[in-house]
Write a structure and sequence with these properties.
The complex is a heterodimer of chains A (about 140) and B (about 375). Chain A is mainly β and about 140 residues long. Chain A contains 1 helix and 13 strands. Chain B has 21 helices and no strands. The longest helix of chain B has about 30 residues. Chain B is globular and about 85 Å long. The chains are: A mainly beta (about 140), B mainly alpha (about 375). Chains A and B meet through strand 2 and strand 10 of A and helix 20 and helix 21 of B.
Chain lengths: ~140, ~375
Amino acid sequence: MATTYTLEVDGQRFTVDVVETGPERYRVTVNGRTLSVRLLPEGEVVPVAEAAQPETRAEAAERPAVAGAVTEVRAPIPGTIVSVEVQAGQVVKYGDTLLVLEAMKMKNLIRSPREGRIARVHVQPGQSVMHNDLLITFEG
Amino acid sequence: MNGVTFHQLLQGITHVTPGSLVMIAAGCVLIYLAIAKDYEPLLLLPIGAGAILANLPLSPLTGEDGLLTILYDAGVANELFPLLIFVGIGAMTDFGPLLENPRLVLLGAAGQFGIFGTLLLALLLGFDLNEAASIGIIGAIDGPTSIYVSNLLAPHLLGPIAVTAYSYMSLVPIIQPPIMRLLTTRKERRVRMPYTQRTISRRTRVLFPLIVTLVVGTLVPMATPLIGMLMLGNLMKESGVVERLTKASTEEIANIVTLFLGLAVGSTMRADTFLRLDTLFILMLGVLAFGLDTAAGLLFAKFLNALSRGRFNPLLGAAGISAFPMAARVVQRMVQEEDFENFLLMHAMGANTAGQIGSVVAGGVLLALLGAG
């Protein structure tokens, strides 16, 4: 789950989204710019990777440095599961389609927030889900 | 066989005019768009067929007791068909996303700016006030509202206006995205907004259509027919006690009326009234109206974004129009292109239903301003 902070530096406001991607590793989005950040033992924050060009597609910049702590995929909006594209044990890449959720008669692709192996699929086609219902868990 | 009977035998061919051929071709284009491109087929196919049937030489269908004449008199001239369609739309619409996030109603108001912008431009192009208002209402991006208003203010322009409104409605996914990209930054397009799950009680859902009808009907009496029918449909849906009527409104009645309305509107595409420079202007002003609506909605949403210190995604402004659910889908698609973990569909749907109410109110305001009725 992303945590959002609003920081004020020298009178300028920044919206910061922090997602834990691994042990002491975070994906930090500051005003739309995404950085992968590793927390050093001294407590010093050092960027590990930064998007080379801010205008390149988000996926490349946002890919976590290691497969890590995002272990669940939950329903972003209520709807009906139309199809499940993965099964337990399958290895997926960042951005792979996991399942299709139909809401308000629109089919929405739920794509993988990380790479890793699927531990369990909690829903099946035809099932109605509420907001935040557990859809998929990853191993590790 | 003498010359007279021979002439009578060939009167179909001798009555073909260049104008009617052009209109038959236009009807074929509409049917092509419906079948090959899937552009609003439920409307464009009957409209195209109506245009062809009305322009065949000496077509008995448009005679005094012809089917097309009867349909036109029965449901278009007196506004019956668009109003019946509205009952069905109301019964199909879920105002839940709007009730969960009521501030979205502001976007539904902003999305109507194109009506007034287009009206002014139409006046500049030399249309009179009633005609300009009818053309402006294309900016409501709502077929039945366009038919309703233009039939009261400028019935002679009904054909071109209805055809423009319905053809462009299917072009929403093509017209909107370039404007959306132009007016927002990438950072703005990537603003995430969590889905605010708020359970809307049945009582609220039932009271909503009643209250909207009472408030809007009192403030804008000219909007009562449209908003009243829209909300009647919604009341039937939300009450849950008249499922048969709800089903009939959304299926049987809506289907029958759509067919009748399409044929009748198509039959207004006659060469003498359609093949004029005005029609070309209306087509141009129509696309402008769509663009202005989108731009106004986006700019207003950018203002909300500034007010909320960057926590409101300005793309939602493009959903504050009546084209439902196309506009909301266009917004969600673009949001996902930028960030596949961002789901603004529910917010967009809320803004979109607000746009439906907004366009009906705007239609009523226009009629009231021009003293029609």
